[in-house]
């Protein structure tokens, strides 16, 4: 009988931290009233038969504190980029001049701030779900190892506890990231 893959808590931790990295990236894209090129990073453009990040079809710059400029490289992609920005739910409406899209960043009103907080919560929940999937994978490996008599029942319990501790700490980190972003969004 072949031995199963060993249980590696560091691999699980690394995979869970991947979801916090992803969350940091997504939260960075949520705006707080100032223009930042990173705001458009989550935008996916329907280009050449697939979905591509905006930065693979255009250059984003910040000419003024409340203005983003998107220089589309391929003239045939302007409409697709415009549509992607409007559909991105960032509350931005592009003014198009040839291959350049100008995006005025409006002042955030209370209603818009609350919407952004909801989006932040959605991102955080997705990150937590990803962490829980990794936890489930880890617990499944441990269970299989125990069933195959490659680890003892005591080891299984110890590993289960270890996985839960890592999960709890990563979830706590996600909650901290969310709380910080929520405070940043709601600060006028």
From TrEMBL:
The keyword Amino-acid biosynthesis does not apply. Pfam families: RRF. GO terms for molecular function: ribosomal large subunit binding. GO terms for biological process: cytoplasmic translational termination. Keywords: Cytoplasm, Protein biosynthesis. Residues 23-186 form the Ribosome recycling factor domain. It is found in: Cytoplasm. GO terms for cellular component: cytosol. Its main location: cytoplasm. Responsible for the release of ribosomes from messenger RNA at the termination of protein biosynthesis. May increase the efficiency of translation by recycling ribosomes from one round of translation to another. Belongs to the RRF family. This is Ribosome-recycling factor.
């Amino acid at each position: 009988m072949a031995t199963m893959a060993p249980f590696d808590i560091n691999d699980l931790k690394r995979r869970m931290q991947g979801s916090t990295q992803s969350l940091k990236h997504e939260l960075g894209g949520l705006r707080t009233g100032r223009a930042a090129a990173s705001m458009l990073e989550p935008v996916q453009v329907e280009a050449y038969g697939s979905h591509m990040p905006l930065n693979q079809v255009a250059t984003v710059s910040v000419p003024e504190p409340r203005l983003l400029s998107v220089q589309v490289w391929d003239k045939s992609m302007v409409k697709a980029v415009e549509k992607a920005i409007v559909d991105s739910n960032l509350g931005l409406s592009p003014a198009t001049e040839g291959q350049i899209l100008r995006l005025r960043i409006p002042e955030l009103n209370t209603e818009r701030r609350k919407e952004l907080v909801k989006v932040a919560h959605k991102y955080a929940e997705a990150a937590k779900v990803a962490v829980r999937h990794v936890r489930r994978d880890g617990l499944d490996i441990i269970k299989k190892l125990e069933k195959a008599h490659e680890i003892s029942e005591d080891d299984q319990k110890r590993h289960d506890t270890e996985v839960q501790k890592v999960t709890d700490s990563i979830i706590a980190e996600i909650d901290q990231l969310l709380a910080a972003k929520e405070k940043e969004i709601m600060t006028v």
